[in-house]
Amino acid sequence: MDSGLPNILIIICHDLGQQLGCYGDPSLRTHNLDRLAQEGVRFENHFCTTPLCSPSRGSIITGRYPHTNGLVGLAHRGFDLNEGEVTMAQRII
């Protein structure tokens, strides 16, 4: 049954860069990811809001800068999103 909601799959890998076949690296075999990239959306011009993983991922899921969404440090060090911060998943539902 089609709910009418978009199917969104976000794959976040720590320190991966563009080391995938779909980005032109011939030394890696990433057939399934290459197929996903071919059939979906592949970012070619992208940047990171911060070099720390937790704040960067917080920006991805909220669409807001770390100093705005509250996740300004590493989550395992006690930092978290501001209370009431809305994530991408909450906006879709």
Question: Please, could you describe this protein's structure?
Answer:
The protein is mostly helical and 93 residues long. The longest helix is centred in the middle third of the chain and has 10 residues, at 53-62. 30% of the residues lie in helices and 0% in strands. The protein folds into two domains: 17-46, no CATH class; 47-93, no CATH class. The chain is flat and about 40 Å long. It is built from four helices and no strands.
Describe the secondary-structure layout:
Blueprint lengths: L30 H9 L13 H10 L3 H4 L18 H5 L1
**How many E strands?**
0
Q: Work out the helicity level.
A: 25-40%
Encode the helix/strand succession as letters: HHHH
What is the number of helices?
4
- Which class of secondary structure composition applies to the elements? mainly alpha
The domain tally reads: 2
Radius of gyration: 16 Å
Estimated share of beta-strand residues:
under 5%
* CA(first)-CA(last) distance: 16 Å
Which of globular, elongated, flat, extended, rod-shaped describes the shape?
flat
Q: Give the rounded overall mean pLDDT.
A: 87
Regions with pLDDT < 50 over 5+ consecutive residues? none
**Main β-sheet: number of strands, strand sense, barrel status?**
none
